[in-house]
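Sanity check

After download, print the first record. It should look like this:
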Amino acid sequence: MSNERITALKKEIEAKKQELAELRHSADPVTVEDYEVQQADGSSVRLSELFGEFDEMLLIHNMGTGCSYCTLWADGFNAFWPYLKTKSAFVLTSPDPVHKMAQFVGARGWNFPCVSIHDTSLVKDFGFDAEWGTWPGVSVVKKHADGTMTRHAQAQFGPGDDYCALWGLIDLLPSGKGDWEPKYNK
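Expected structure tokens:
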């Protein structure tokens, strides 16, 4: 009985995920400002310049060096980076000052582009601000032929989400997640 229920529930979840994807794709795009951000080497770059050869970007909203959960997601993205970079632009944003961000990125060995959005309104403008700082998540940004940019979808990150492969593996353990929190060495 439980295997049949698991199979049925998996089908329901997949159908809901497909419905959510379709709703996100049908949402009205929102115009995006061409923010000036700082690369790890301290140089300034415009958001529009980070697309490279692509017209779509996955823009990650990371909480910075103090969040072990955000580190967990970014460590996972590093593993996916060889695949992601063949599909779209991918950039992680950090609210930390550029020197702090660059040191942490180097220590973690992240290979994907990372930028400091310190002293910009990007987090607030994208709706990822919270009383305590930056809410983690992802926004999808499209660059149009005329140079304008629009946001087409976004999702917040949280324990158990679809953006970290580890959650599903931990859930399979008999002990489950419980009160487990990811730890990392700074």
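If your output differs, re-run the checksum step. Summary of this record's structure: The beta strands are 30-32, 36-39, 44-46, 56-61, 89-94, 114-116, 129-130, 133-134, 137-143, 149-156.
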